[in-house]
Amino acid sequence: MEYSEKVLGHFKRPSNYGRMKNPDAVGKVGNIVCGDVMWLYIKVGKSASGRKKGEDFIKDIKFETFGCVAAIASSSVITDLAKGKTLREALKISKEDVLKSLKGLPPIKVHCSLLSVDALFDAIYNYLKANKKLIPQNLEKNHSRTQKEKDLIKEKYKKWVKLEETIYKKGKI
Question: 0.90 exceeded by the pTM?
């Protein structure tokens, strides 16, 4: 399996890697088939000037990913693509944008680009919901799909999910 230099660069030196203290929202997604798990943290600010004055924007963003080269590289790229964008702009980021930024992924690894987008969208959804803001219909639909996947994982792997959540809350992962 061949990875582009861009993929390998993001894998070896990921942008915005690490847990964020006091994030405004967290997106967490996983893939039951490959086992990748991504946490994406965002801090949201209000734009002070320009055409976007008063709009919520992604002031800071970080990620933690347990997964393969493609999963880590995709997580790194999504943070680069989203940082500084308004939430509205960030919701326009697609897996194709991630793939283009990485100069492609092997076909068997393309799902990692979707997983990174889902993590971003999950964080934005959680932010909007927690702040009682309007949730766009397409984001609601995406959340519904990813929530069904999370529910399947929780049901199938109850013991592991409970252990993982306990360890995560203690800050050990």
Answer: no
